Amino acid sequence: MSVIIDINDLSFRYAKESQFFNLSHVNLHVNEGEWLAIIGHNGSGKSTLAKAIDGLLAPESGEIVVDGQKLTDESVWDIRKKIGMVFQNPDNQFVGADVEGDVAFGLENQGIERAEMHARVHEALEMVDMVDFAKHEPVRLSGGQKQRVAIAGVLALRPKIVIFDEATSMLDPEGRMQIISLIRQMNRKEKFTVISITHDIDEASLADRVVVLDDGQIIDDSLPQDLFQKGAELIELGLDVPFPQRLKMELGKMGVLTPQEYLDEGSMVDWLCRSILKN
Amino acid sequence: MDKMLLGRYINGDSLIHRMDPRAKLFLSFYFIVIVFLCNNWQTYTLMVAIVLLCVKLSEISLGFFIKGVRPLIWLILFTVLLQIFFSTGGDPYWQWGPFTVTDAGIINGVFVFCRFVLIIFMSTLLTLTTTPLEISDGLESLLKPLLALKVPVYEIALMLSIALRFVPTLMDETTKIMNAQRARGVNFGEGGLIKQIKAVIPLLIPLFVSSFNRAEDLATAMEARGYHGGAGRTKYRKQEWKTKDTLGVVMFLLVTLALVLLRK
Asked: Where in the cell is it found (chain B) (predicted)?
């Protein structure tokens, strides 16, 4: 697996005079085709990191290399073509006056021919299952539908990397599930490299690798199953643990012996059934 | 806010709906110019016939157009009364101090009334049959010659279409903030003038703050999607100039000719 994003010793702060660095000496490598989740409590620097990768914020020191290209003032537009971003608030990233127009916005910026645009917009809307809504205005869509349109806008551009900056945090549970399954499909089937920045622990547990940020520093970088085993530690960091792990901890408190390794929902159900049958 | 007819669009598939927005924009402005050519019964009758024909072709009921006149009715009546009472010339019917009512004055009053109503009908027709998006696209291409004068036409068009896209969002937000402040005891539209103005502050300040936040977020999202100015952009939406648009223009030119001939 080749490295597609290479971050070396990245530091950043919003206010020059402040002592606090929003990102300090971050080193991170993202492999091609990987699904990386970045978690951390509020204000830990997750979104700042995402914006820095896309060149939306200029780092104070350190360098970022995306797909072999170093991020500089000259290369920033080339790099943005390789990265698609979906932001938190579905209302504030809708540029077009209707669904089609919004999906086409990025294509218009790249100066793509009209016939090609029509084909790509249709294809992207099909992938997110929004073809029937092509002529709808943003006010007539739900939050989850707006996020799907935003994802279609990214898909139409065919980037190599897609960054979800807390894209599910303002959605209802149903909208969230739809977006998560879309992310999974994009990563597994379409082979996009996915970075998802999230509070949602269920989303993080589906990723290939989880990075934990705390006050601008990376404090953990491991597989989800290894990470969630650390139950209590994560709660101290202001994070949550997935439901099976929480159940395991509660059972532990009641004196039930539970397996050491992390169990996802399926294996937790299996384990529970087996232990009940044994008694 | 539901009563507001400005910028309201009524979905339909009539001949007028399907016309090119550029043609509609141009003809609406052109109509306002040629209305001032009218100065007698024949010309006004012709114009009324044209407007009624357009209304008929749009397949929208006349009621909507009459609603469009309603907000301006006081202005119209005021102007008409001024015309009637302060016109000189013609045979005076009635005189009292500075007020005179003459036959010419009454005729002028009726003409001014017709002129107002015709212009309002025509501009209502434009907004009822054209989506805001089409209007901003149409304006962009009509303004294109101004590029030579270094007018930032693309940016103006983008500004316009973003402004139009945010109108419903901000309306929703206003209602939400009003409800939230009401839940905390603010009374909107009650008490004296000063008190009413003061009650607007808890509405306006959050609205401004949230608009700026939205603008910031939107700018970031646009930049992330590769927006860097109007140059080199292509357009997704294509405007097609069809035979019916040419016919519309030809019809209006014939009307102009007829007006010039019928004028006294």
From this structure: Cell membrane
What is the C-alpha to C-alpha distance for residues A137 and B164, in angstroms, rounded to an integer? 11
Confidence (pTM): 0.79
Distances (CA, A) of A216 to A24, A211, A240: 5, 12, 19
> Residue ranges per domain, chain A?
1-82+159-175+183-223, 91-158
Which residues, other chains included, contact B17 with Cβ-Cβ below 8 Å and sequence gap of 6+? B58, B129, B130
Strand B99-102 vs strand A161-165: parallel, antiparallel, or unpaired? unpaired
The count of CB pairs under 8 A between chains A and B is 96
Residue A154: C-alpha distances to residues A6, A25, A115, A162, A186 (Å): 22, 30, 18, 8, 11
A1-82+159-175+183-223, what's its fold? Rossmann fold (3.40.50)
Judge if ipTM > 0.90: no
**C-alpha separations of A200 from A40, A195, A226 in Å:** 10, 14, 17
Can you spell out the DSSP letters for A153-194?
HHHHH--SEEEEESTTTTS-HHHHHHHHHHHHHHHHTS--EE
Of A144, A191, A153, nearest in space to A171 by CA: A144
pLDDT in tens, A215-247: 888 888 888 888 887 777 777 777 778 888 888
Distance from the B21 Cα atom to the nearest Cα atom in chain A, whole angstroms: 16
Contact at CB, B169 and A77, closer than 8 angstroms: no
* Gap between the Cα atoms of A210 and A188, Å rounded: 17
Mean pLDDT estimate for chain A:
87
User: Which residue in A56, A94, A97 is closest to B220 by CB distance?
Assistant: A56
For residue A158, the distance in angstroms to the closest alpha carbon of chain B comes to 12
Q: For residues B110 and B101, give the distance between their C-alpha atoms in angstroms, rounded to a whole number.
A: 13
The helix (run of H) or strand (run of E) holding residue B95 is strand B92-96
Paired tokens of A136:
């709808």
Taking the C-alpha atoms of residue A55 and residue A5, their distance in angstroms, rounded to an integer, is 13
Show which residues on chain B lie within 8 Å of chain A, measured between beta carbons.
Answer: 131-133, 136, 161-162, 164-165, 168-169, 172, 213-214, 217-218, 220-228, 232-238
Q: The tokens of B31 are what?
A: 């109509």
In chain A, where do the E strands start and end? 3-12, 23-31, 35-39, 61-66, 69-70, 83-86, 161-165, 193-197, 209-214, 217-222
Residues in chain A within 8 Å Cβ distance of B225: 80, 84-85, 95, 105-106, 109, 153, 157
Q: Say yes or no to pLDDT of B95 above 80.
A: no
